[in-house]
Amino acid sequence: MKQFLIILMVISVNSVFSQHDTTNKNFVEFNPSFSYKMLDQNLDLRKVNILLDEKQKGTVKNNSLIIGGSLISIGDYQKSNTDSKFGYLMRHPTPSNQIGTEVSEIVIHSFQLSFTGIVNSWLAAHTEILYSPEQSFGSGTITAIGRNQLQLRKGFALIGDLDKFPVYLALGKMDTPFGQTGSVSPFTNSTFYHAFGGLGYGGQIGFKSHNFHAKFMAVQGGAQFRALNTPVGNGTNVPSKVNNFVADLNYTIHFSSKTTFYFGASYVHGSAYNQDFPVSHFSPGTDVNPAYTYYGKLNINNRFILKGGYAKTLKVWKGTHNPTPPLDVYEASKVSSLDVGAKLYLNNSEKVQYAISGEFSNFIAGAKGSPWERQNQIVAGFSAMVKKSSMLFLELFRTDGYAPLNFISGSADNNPFPPGVTHSLRSANSMGIVCGVQVSI
Q1: pTM for the complete prediction?
Q2: What gap in Å lies between CA 281 and CA 232, rounded to an integer?
């Protein structure tokens, strides 16, 4: 029976491709530069925007299926002043994977596979399958089965043709339009992204005309995949209600054809920082803790980029107060993050484009002087972009502070720490170097 079904599937697929071959011989295609933009995990995370822009530019065709892939392989070395406490967020969870004060590795950081279907001028879909053992939330080391799984990281249907009407709609699983979570670094995400970058199920409606862009996204409630959490009742995190949302407004000023200034502001109704003590990943929130951000980016002659953003919650994060002495002296705190970065392109070659970058970002989570007060990150990078689709990179980085979100202010009942003890450490710092290659097809 299984063999019969497989034969039927093969015949059906061949039939579909044969039909399209009569009208469009390039129905299935590879577009490396487009795939790089859609799969890049660092520079621009608003993939709905990218797909809309590429459709307007004509770089993707109607009645086509674009298959893309991206592999990132890295080697790195890190040194910490504290045993087994490394704050670099491109590698987690550290207690299971980084032991001692010096660590090194040569690994696959991630692999992505994408399918983008363009039906016509107003209907399209995009999906991304991700393998990422280094940043998986699964337990164990990077060789554990739980951390070596494939997932549908993103997937959305897109309805709209901006050439004919300035309104569009996206439905599915996507990054929320909160702030400027992309980075100028070639590989390393900013701490701002880790603090406020959102991924969730929902529906997004946008208005884009001339230089103005407005978005509203209704988000499924409960504890979503990243940085989103609203109570849904009965002390559960089951996403049984659409009771969260994100709004964003931005405007672009064109000083010339190649020099622009882009600025905006966003609001999220339910951030991740609404849990009571003790804090743990994806546990139910006790209330709603909104957050806001404002951001800007200056692009001079397509050669120099200066960007920055700031975000903060409206309420204190209750879970940042540990009621057990001696940690009870630290009051609950609001959460904020700052990101400032610059990037300079050294040439303008189509074959290999070189760039240097520098970025500072932080995560402020606790009262002044508390062990979980902050975690800062500085990154200096060099990159070589090959044919606008693949990249070789080298980065130097430093982190100050060790404040992992899970049990950030300690735990109760000796699970996993004794009362009055936290694994966060303000004085912990680490330095490292990472080099690697990202190949996209």
Answers
A1: 0.91
A2: 16
